[in-house]
Amino acid sequence: NAGVTQTPKFQVLKTGQSMTLQCAQDMNHNSMYWYRQDPGMGLRLIYYSASEGTTDKGEVPNGYNVSRLNKREFSLRLESAAPSQTSVYFCASSYGTDNNSPLHFGNGTRLTVT
Amino acid sequence: QKEVEQNSGPLSVPEGAIASLNCTYSDRGSQSFFWYRQYSGKSPELIMFIYSNGDKEDGRFTAQLNKASQYVSLLIRDSQPSDSATYLCAVGGGSARQLTFGSGTQLTVLP
């Protein structure tokens, strides 16, 4: 049982390049999330998907797009990377569709934009 | 005022002591409370959750919730060096659409 799997683990981009972060969960969870974590800023929600077929903006959505491909997979795309997007990105999932369920996190993607 | 506040620390305790981590929240409608542990360079890991006022114990960990005073705490008994990590408090069930995380408290257990 892998839980939440994120790829890649590390990535270096040049400013203006694009990339997609992949996330998959095998826990039959309904909701999936993308967070970024920066020193001193804590975890900040970028986008989430409360159920298959729906996506919503979080606290810091600018510069990102997401796709809930199916119940298992939720991808995060950076269309034109900027140095301000250098961060550690975590995908998470939860069983519930409200905000009362615990989150289970993937191992993270460390992204550097030069 | 931040919605979920934690003392950033660092908090240092000697091995074998009780570590006490505190979290306050502003939304009185909050219903669910979670503690995550995050080792340096790793992802957050759920260690406790509590929904009702009072204490909830799980091994060396005890979560305490006081909704009237709007705080939740985590006690770690018989602290070990392996408990050295950042502890994140998360609050849900209020007016926010998703869980709200505090910035975390860094705990160091000294051998």
The chain-level structural class of chain B is: mainly beta
Helix content of chain B: under 10%
Distance between the termini of chain B: 36 Å
Q: Approximately how much beta-strand content do the residues of chain B carry?
A: over 45%
The helix-strand sequence of chain B is EEEEEEEEEEE
Identify the overall geometry of chain B.
globular
Distance between the first and last residues' Cα of chain A: 36 Å
Kindly report the oligomeric state of this protein: heterodimer
Main sheet overview of chain B: 6 strands, mixed
Largest sheet of chain A: 7 strands, mixed
Overall strand count of chain A: 11
Average residue pLDDT of chain B? 93
What is the tally of beta strands of chain B?
11
Number of helical segments of chain B?
A: 0
Uncertain runs of chain B: none
The whole-angstrom Rg of chain A is: 13 Å
Q: What is the alpha-carbon Rg of chain B in Å? A: 13 Å
Overall form of chain A:
globular
> Which stretches of chain A are poorly predicted, pLDDT < 50 over at least 5 residues?
none
How would you describe this protein?
The complex is a heterodimer of chains A (114) and B (111). By secondary structure, chain A is an all-beta fold. Chain A has no helices and eleven strands. In chain A, the strands form two sheets. In chain A, strands 2, 4, 5, 6, 9, 10 and 11 form a seven-stranded mixed sheet that branches. A four-stranded antiparallel sheet of chain A has the order 1-3-8-7, with no helix packed on it. The radius of gyration of chain A is 13 Å and the shape is globular. Chain B is globular. The relative contact order of chain B is 0.35. Chain B has no helices and eleven strands. Chain B is mostly beta strands and 111 residues long. At the A-B interface, strand 5 and strand 10 of A face strand 5 and strand 9 of B.
